[in-house]
Amino acid sequence: MKFYSTTDRSVRVTLREAVLGGMPPDKGLYMPEFIPRLPQSFLNSLDSSDYQTICLEIAQALLGDDIPSAALQNIIHDAINFGTPLVWIEDRVNTLELFHGPTLAFKDVGARFMSRLMAFLIKDSGQKLTILVATSGDTGSAVANGFYDIPGIDVIVLYPAAKISQIQEKQIATLGKNITALKIDGNFDDCQRLVKTALADSDLLRSLRLTSANSINICRLIPQIFYYFNALRQIGDYLSREIVICVPSGNFGNLTAGLMAKKMGLPVQRFIAATNINHVVPVYLTSGTFAPRPSVQTISNAMDVGDPSNFARILDLYNSSWKAIQKDLAGAYYTDDETRQAIARLAHKTGYVLDPHGAVAYLGLTDYLAQNPRFDTGIFLETAHPAKFKDIVEPVIGKPVNIPLRLKKFLDREIKSISMSHRYPDFKEFLLLKSN
Ligand SMILES: *Cc1c(COP(=O)(O)O)cnc(C)c1O
């Protein structure tokens, strides 16, 4: 499989270049040169397969020319080591729980797969790879944990000293080994600027092989296709149902993976993009105009994105046709008050506790089902465990959130971060010392 750039489709690179480079030099995003349709026999019998077999079939269709089957099987076995259960909530409403990984958010899926794939791609090169990641939360913890103890790869996570929750800091900064956590005296934008400057610093690139691990890397999207098929596997007689899936969205990587799954044959009729008040995509879906703007802070903060990067991929999948996109995709957006009310209402009615991101998706799905009675089956993605956002959720439901053991274990560990200014020369000096 070759990959092209969404900015210039005549650019073609190998899997290795797309994954280790991250972003094409023309600032587009890499896409597979074609999206293979899976065999009908496979699509008809998802419910007689197991999750790992499904993952392997999909990965082979996309990456089978580049990675031998046995290696791909190992990568999947190692990376996809937790399930994505589909849980019935109420009439026509189910949730696909994506938070059963080590850091309790769906980003574990992409990060764990990316780390193993990168390790495979550099295995014979003999040169260490250093990954830089700027984070304000979920991405950093998923990447740090996903790459922990992976041979040949060092990870440096930069996080803003002030604006991070204690849980998130513990998940990023307590690991050690090949994971270094830098606590930057500045905000998220300072962290991101340091990473971007380093990635373009030819002086550094002479002695270090640097790359990033942010959500625009195509190899984070590929494993996210797996769990859409896993959702249907868990529904009986899915071929005779009218199914709609609602995805809580920020940078739109998760939804892009869903639309790619549909192109591969996922038997789902429609998707819904649900956002918080950062609603540029829902507005595009009704108006046809895409108008990025600065992000606004909300309680579903992993979706506070004003200019979603994967939108370019969605346009690419549909040849920029608004009409074609509208056919597959509806949009909805919600305020923080509506989100809090949804969490309270569902907890009260059923005992199921949503996190703020899943709550936005729950609202998007239930509103859609109310207006579209022909859909008999709805699925919304729950992208994080409510314990990750307990400061928001507990006051709303009026009682403590159950903290899973794997999160408690982080809370007992000691933070080992290195404090650093937001000046680039300090960061550069640190990187050069590390390379020697
Ligand atoms: C990152 C994140 C999202 C948004 O996912 P995108 O792929 O960027 O749209 C939603 N929920 C949670 C909990 C996240 O961490």
SSE layout:
Blueprint: E1 3-5, E2 12-13, H1 15-21, E3 30-32, H2 40-44, H3 51-63, H4 69-79, E4 86-90, E5 93-97, H5 107-122, E6 129-134, H6 138-146, E7 153-160, H7 166-173, E8 179-184, H8 188-199, H9 202-207, E9 210-212, H10 218-233, E10 243-248, H11 253-263, E11 270-275, H12 280-287, H13 311-317, H14 322-328, E12 329-333, H15 336-350, H16 356-371, E13 377-382, H17 390-397, H18 405-411, E14 418-420, H19 424-435
Parallel strand pairs: 5-13, 6-7, 6-9, 7-8, 8-14, 10-11, 10-13, 11-12
Antiparallel strand pairs: 1-2, 1-3, 4-5
Helix pairs in contact: 3-4, 3-10, 4-5, 5-6, 5-10, 6-7, 10-11, 11-13, 15-16, 15-17
Helix content: 40-55%
The chain-level mean pLDDT equals: 95
The CATH class of the domain at 82-106 and 223-403 is identified as Alpha Beta
Question: Could you list the spans in which at least 5 consecutive residues all have pLDDT below 50?
Answer: none
Cofactors and ligands present? Answer: pyridoxal-5'-phosphate
Lateral arrangement of strands in the main beta sheet: 4-5-13-10-11-12
Percent in strands: 15-25%
Q: Give the helix tally.
A: 19
Tertiary shape: globular
Secondary structure class reads alpha/beta
Q: Which CATH architecture of the domain at 82-106 and 223-403 would you pick?
A: 3-Layer(aba) Sandwich
Return Rg in Å: 21 Å
Biggest beta-sheet profile:
6 strands, mixed
